[in-house]
# Entry
Amino acid sequence: MSDAELPPNEVPAYRALAAGYDLVMEHVEYDEWAGYVHELLQDFGDGVESILELGCGTGSLSLALQPLGAYRYAGTDRVEEMLHVAREKAGMEGADIDFQAADFTDFAVDRPVDALLLLFDGINYLTGETALRDLFGCAFRALRPGGMFVFDLSTPANSINNAEYFDDEGEEDGFRYRRRSAFDAATNLHRTTFDLEIEGERYREVHLQRAWPIEEVRPLVLESGFEILAVLDGFDRDPAGPDTERAHWVVRRPRGGTPA
# Structure
């Protein structure tokens, strides 16, 4: 897509991108992600049977993970266009997953769950501490005592070290995209612009994320009442450190714990 073809109409994040999100994410090994998360749930969890995935997108992780433990599984996302794709995929596979609309900074459950998930940089879309506190508060209340919350976090090291991989483009079946990114090290804000063409209609989406340093998030997790079981380096079992690009957090609501 040339500069002369840039779309005039900007839409909220993921509203248009949903149509080709799976193409944009085709490099992601969802089976490997699912296997890693399943191991964390089994190793750190206490009889995990029910899972609520926040920011589930088009359901690719849900569909890969749910069968590994025959989990009672639900997924939420605030973008209905993404959920529409997720429901279609689940229907095609005959998967028993309940996909519902919800904002992960403002949600509640009818029945506490054993585990919550928020992956693929979802937490990085929260650019301020107030939003993080809202997320952690909702998550704490949604878990049963002893329940666990697994989330990942893209750090400034990821934005700095992998800048060359954040710009790309592609097309398939009437969907075209061009992605360009810029990282501001002074604010840790990462801005990604998607220029899209869908069946001849052009759109632009601007996604703003914050690359959170691990030590800025840790006190917010603790003040919400969680116990931190592990902060892991990428997909390893080594503790995260200063050079970690993606940290996987495993935190737990204490038995008998109440929100701070």
Q: What stands out?
A: The chain has a mean pLDDT of 94.
